[in-house]
Amino acid sequence: SNEKGYFTISEKCTDFCQDDLADDDIMILDNGEQVFLWLGARCSEVEIKLAYKSAQ
């Protein structure tokens, strides 16, 4: 979130499931062969732009 004026990325190494995808979050999912970007419906344009840049 950028609510506090900054954008952070953290790694989640535990078991992932679809329930982890929240409508106010962005997730970069990397399975070793492909990278997927989850853009929650309530994410801001700034967050989306930063997520695209981070996923590259």
TrEMBL record:
GO molecular function per UniProt: actin filament binding; phosphatidylinositol-4,5-bisphosphate binding
Transmembrane segments: none
GO biological process: actin filament severing; actin polymerization or depolymerization; barbed-end actin filament capping; myofibril assembly
InterPro entries, alphabetized: ADF-H/Gelsolin-like_dom_sf, Gelsolin-like_dom, Villin/Gelsolin
Residue runs in coiled coils: none
GO cellular component, one term: nucleus
UniProt keyword terms in alphabetical order: Repeat
Residues annotated as domain Gelsolin-like: 11-56
Listed PANTHER family: PROTEIN FLIGHTLESS-1 HOMOLOG, VILLIN
Name of the molecule in the record: Gelsolin
Protein source organism: Pamphilidae sp. tK9
Protein's gene: GLN
